[in-house]
Amino acid sequence: MPRITQATASLVDVAVETVRTDAVQSFVKQETVFVEISVDDGGTGTGYAYTIGTGGRAVLALLRDSLLPRLTGADPRRVEAVWLDLFAANRSTTTGAITSLALAAVDTALWDWRCRAAGVPLWVLAGGAKDRVPLYDTEGGWLHLETDELVAGARAAQAAGWPGVKIKVGRSPVADAERLAAVRAAVGPEFDIMVDANQSLTAPEAIRRARLLEPSDPYWFEEPLPADDISGHAALAAATSVPVAVGESMYSVTQFAEYIRRGAVGIVQADVARVGGITPWLKIAHLAQAHNLLVCPHFLMELHVSLCCAVPNSRYLEHIPQLRAITRREIEVRDGHALAPDVPGLGIDWDRDAIDDRRVQ
Ligand SMILES: [Mg+2]
To answer: What domain range includes position 276?
Structure first.
């Protein structure tokens, strides 16, 4: 029986690749929390989680103080048992964002080892439903961009054969509707345009916004309200023909179950780092499938490409490249689809020297 012999954590700051703003925040830097495990079979695993600028040190401290000491001697094949042990040992800070991020860094390291030990890629070991997934671009749709820039970005994505783009909203209701209409006019009716409000509205505001946006046929209306407001999401979903997409600000399987039970979500956007890793992410994706809902994860395309390919009900991967500075290979894109990386493990080719150069401590 294999045993974990060592587990370490570190923090690496990765500069943002481009200016990214939305209705409530800007992406300052990617605080990347790495966990490395060594196993007595000679294998290793590398996992990670992230923040977009704050809290990374708290995740690191939680890992070092409370999670990693429990890993030595554990059987790395038993991902469920390890996850539950770490969760149960930290009851006073679960469920919560910092703890879920820390759990994700451990869980993804276990899966990386487990896939390498089996000699198969993550997307195969986790289900292997498909070998590619459509990609939509978010990099051309940030809130600070002017309408002509949004149009140029959407046209470029369309010309490259991509099936969709995302536009941030958060200016005035009329201005947002005009910006979306300009993009729709440029790309025609058969191109998907996602709209994202980043939790900035109230339910009554969002219902009015949805009515103003509907003539441009958005593919989804993402994070219209604060993630805590399940009733508001349910009211909006009942009031609009646009699918309501949520999940990037949710931190447990149970939160997704409640959203689904109450008819408050139309597109499930679980983020593997924020929900506590691959083990809970798969449960959320399968829960969505059981309710005939699509899963379109948030950010982390380098890891989510494999998870999207693992499950049958994925529809879209979000294109926001952010690991180029610390990896040696980018995800492969062909005909508007991201291809599942066909190598054992998570499928991310880390540049160890570049990571060492950026370690915070
Ligand atoms: Mg979003």
So the answer is: 124-339
Do 280 and 246 reside in the same domain of the chain? yes
Cα–ligand 1 centroid distance for 73 (angstroms): 39
Please report which confidence band the pLDDT of residue 17 belongs to, taking 50, 70 and 90 as the band edges: confident
Tell me if residue 236 falls in helix, strand or coil.
Answer: helix
Burial of 143 (0-12, 13-18, 19+ CB in 10 A): buried
Confidence of residue 185 (pLDDT cuts 50, 70, 90): very high
How many structural domains are present in the chain? 2
Q: Residue 85, Cα to own-chain centre: how many angstroms?
A: 24
Q: How far apart are CA 342 and CA 334, in angstroms?
A: 15
Is residue 249 predicted with pLDDT exceeding 80?
Answer: yes
| DSSP three-state, residue 89 | coil
Q: Please tell me whether residues 54 and 157 are part of one structural domain.
A: no
- Residues 298, 333, single domain; the answer is yes
Q: Are residues 154 and 107 in the same domain?
A: no
CA distance 266 to 234: 10
For the stretch 35-55, pLDDT in tens is 999 999 999 999 999 999 999
Q: Are residues 107 and 229 in the same domain?
A: no
Residue 145 tokens read as 């961009």
Residue 80 has pLDDT above 90, yes or no: yes
Residues 135 and 112 in one domain: no
Ligand 1 center–CA 106 separation, angstroms: 24
Give bridge partners of residue 134 from the DSSP assignment: 337
Is 144 an active-site residue? no
The CATH number that applies at residue 145 is 3.20.20.120
Q: What is the Å distance from ligand 1's center to 84 Cα?
A: 29
Whether residue 131 sits in one domain with residue 105: no
Q: In angstroms, rounded to a whole number, what is the distance separating the alpha carbons of residues 253 and 80?
A: 14
Q: Which amino acid is at 150?
A: L
